[in-house]
């Protein structure tokens, strides 16, 4: 299957990109190898995130994931091992099990 946008990374930046892409009508897939929400999952109390006076990191991560999911974004818990044909119109994203095609790839891999 071919996607308009493939996002590598399911943290705040990747999920934000997914929401905007889906709102623009683009077929979008997000790849996350370890868990959606990124590093926020390791924070007990988040008291400086716009819109929330106080929320736990895992709760915020779940809200971010649910927000992107509400637009119909596709999610895969797979790690991208290689991007082939990066300069061509269709890029191939290779995981251990599958090959996906996308017109655009966004890298939102966070701090690690």
Number of E-state strands: 6
Distance between the termini: 29 Å
Strand order of the largest sheet: 3-2-1-6-5-4
Unreliable spans: none
In one word, what is the shape? globular
- Report the structural category: alpha/beta
Query: N-to-C SSE series?
Result: EHEHEEEE
- Strand composition percent: 25-35%
Count helical runs. Answer: 2
Largest sheet: 6 strands, mixed
Cα gyration radius (Å): 14 Å
Q: How much helicity do the residues have?
A: 10-25%
The overall pLDDT, averaged over residues, is: 92
List keywords for this structure.
112 residues, six-stranded mixed beta sheet, 2 helices, 27% strand
Give an overview in words.
It contains 2 helices and 6 strands; from the N terminus they run βαβαββββ. The protein has 112 residues and is of the alpha/beta class. It has a 6-stranded mixed beta sheet with strand order 3-2-1-6-5-4, with helices on one face. Helix 1 runs parallel beside helix 2. The radius of gyration is 14 Å and the shape is globular. The chain starts with a strand and ends in a 5-residue tail after the last strand. 28% of the residues are buried.
Topology of this structure?
Layout: E1 2-8, H1 12-23, E2 28-31, H2 57-69, E3 74-76, E4 82-84, E5 91-94, E6 99-107
Parallel strand pairs: 1-2, 1-6, 2-3
Antiparallel strand pairs: 4-5, 5-6
Helix pairs in contact: 1-2
